[in-house]
Amino acid sequence: LCRELGALLHEGSSSSVVNVSSNLAERAIPGMAAYNASKAALNQLTRSLALEWAPQVRVNAVMPAVVDTPIHATRGMSSEQVAAMGEMHPMKRVGKPEDVAAMIVFLLSDASSWMTGTVIPVDGGMLAG
To answer: What pLDDT score does 129 carry?
Structure first.
């Protein structure tokens, strides 16, 4: 998507990209090797494009941990099981989509106009410990 939109993004006056990675890029878990590796690669792509596209386009990423979204149901998890995963986070709850969306909105806004190449955990403190 970045490759396809690159030229168009360069035409804008304050273009910004926010990639959605995962804290599993930094904290691998068994059985998820391809996912873990792809998210780590996305973080590096974010940094690389930030350097290549500066100063016209800013490129950042967010790394959520467990967020309460419908994807868990497609994996056979109940809402109770998802809520129980909150114990893995220092903040003792799973994230809400709004938690991640707020950071994305900030990174897309001019309030973050001096940020590029950042990969920000939005993970209830999971990567802190």
So the answer is: 81
76 CB-contact burial (10 Å; exposed 0-12 / middle 13-18 / buried 19+): exposed
Neighbours of 33 (CB within 10 A): 10
Query: What pTM did the predictor assign?
Result: 0.94
Half-sphere CA count of 88, side-chain side, radius 13 A:
16
Marked catalytic residue, from 35, 42, 72, 86: 35
Active site residue 12: no
Each residue's pLDDT tens digit, 75-109: 899 999 999 999 999 999 999 999 999 999 999 99
